[in-house]
Amino acid sequence: MRSPTPRPHRGRRTKRRPVSAAARDAILKAAEEEFAEHGFGGARAQRIATRAGVNKALPFYHFGSKAELYDEVVKRALGRLGEFMADALVAPTPRERLASFVHRLFAYLADNPNWARLIVREVIDEQSRARDVASQYLKPLVDGGREFMIRDMEAGRMRQVDVLQLIVSITVETFGYFLLLPALQYIGIADPLSPAALAAREHMVVNLIADGLGMAGPESGRSD
Question: What is the pTM (predicted TM-score) of this model?
Fold first, then answer.
């Protein structure tokens, strides 16, 4: 197994300098693209700065180091999952909660195609950090969703299943589509990011999981 890419020592930090909110967002977006394409080890400050339209030194002057910039990108990416989960959990039925979460996640992944690759790279390429990332960002989301699913099972609103396996299945069914984007057009989906293709995939995911589990409630969560 390939060893993870070494990271800069966290004790050596470049002095941070404040930047405008617009510049900060541009740097984070550019860094997300760079890390998604090249991983931590292959990412280059010059390419990040060029993508962001800022001076080469500015990303690290503001964030402190390459490692800290990377951590901020991953934190921001995984933090969005918490927002989608919180929005979805207000829905009244299991099926509506699932549909709401899937719709929000699909919409975001369609607008941010590097996001799925970034998260997968973090889990696969940076195995030395995978446990910390899972504990800090993913476990709270899993615990929150698990609590609702257990309540629904106990109330008879869905079949009794292994909740962790169910969460894994939902993750694979959603993220997998976007990881396969380069190949989908060659198997017959001409425009996999078109509204029609995304709606069809959402419908398939929700019905496949909800019907299999006997989830109560109508499918909702789409705004169109």
Answer: 0.76
